[in-house]
Write a sequence for this structure.
């Protein structure tokens, strides 16, 4: 139990005294960038899925 308590104290010290946290506006901008990038990626994958599904459907119906 002593090791665990020591670990928690060291972790708390690291997080409060040694980590440099970004300003809120920078954090907000990065979050927005990740959200927009994820939506674009999801849209591209959805379009590819739609195109391949219809192409394969046409291909299989031709036989």
């Amino acid at each position: 139990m002593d090791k665990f308590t020591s670990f928690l104290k060291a972790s708390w010290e690291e997080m409060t005294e040694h980590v440099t946290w970004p300003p809120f506006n920078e954090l907000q901008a990065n979050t927005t960038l990740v959200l927009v990038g994820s939506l674009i990626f999801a849209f591209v994958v959805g379009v590819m899925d739609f195109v391949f599904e219809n192409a394969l459907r046409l291909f299989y119906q031709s036989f």
About this structure: The mean pLDDT is 96. Residues 16 and 28 are 21 Å apart (CA to CA).
